[in-house]
Amino acid sequence: MPLGYLCLVLHAHLPYVRHPEYDDFLEEDWLYEAITETYIPLLEVFDAPSVVTNCTIRNTSTVPLQALALLNSDFARNRASAFARRLAQEAGGDPDKRTERAFRLAYGRKPQQKELDLTKRFLAAQCQIWSKEKDGEQRAWIDFCQMVLASNSFIYVE
Question: How many helices (H) and strands (E) in the chain?
Answer without folding.
Answer: 8, 2
